[in-house]
Amino acid sequence: MSAIHLTSKNFESEAVRADTPVLIDFFAAWCGPCKMLSPIIEKIAAEHPEIKVCKVDIDEEPSLAERFGVMSVPTLAVMKNGEVVRTSAGFRPEAAVLALLQD
To answer: What is residue 92's predicted lDDT score, i.e. its pLDDT?
Structure first.
C-alpha cells in the first residue's frame, strides 16, 4: 500500500479515526531531506500494513502543518487513538522511523 495524502478534508477520517497507528510525514516538494526520506516512507507503507502511513504537503495544507506545530521539514508525527504520541524533525533512517512507532 502506498502512503495516503492527507488534506484538511480527509484528515479526521484517515488519521484521527484510524484504528491502527498512523505515521504522518510532513514534507515540502522543495526540501532535500524530505526527498531523501520519501522512499523510506513509501517502503514502510508497502511493508507494514499494520501502520497507516500518510503524507502532508505543508505548502498545500498549511493549516495542518500549523495544527501540528511543524516548524521544519521533514517532520514525522505518530498518532495513536487520535492523539499525537511522538514527533521527530529532520531526516531519519528507516530503523529510526520504525522506532518512533514502538510503544
So the answer is: 95
Give the residue ranges of DSSP H helices in 7-93.
11, 32-47, 62-67
> For the whole model, what pTM was predicted?
0.95
CA distances from 93 to 2, 20, 37 (A): 18, 22, 8
Is 54 known to be catalytic? no
Show the cell assigned to 45: 507503507
Residues 6 or more apart whose CB falls under 8 angstroms from that of 48 comprise 98
**Is the predicted pLDDT of residue 1 greater than 80, yes or no?**
no
**Percent of the residues in the chain that have a pLDDT greater than 90, as a whole number:** 96
pLDDT tens digits, 8-18 = 999 999 999 99
Q: Which of 3, 34, 56, 58 is catalytic?
A: 34
Contact 8, 67 (CB under 8 A): no
Catalytic residue among 4, 22, 31, 44: 31
Any catalytic annotation for residue 34? yes
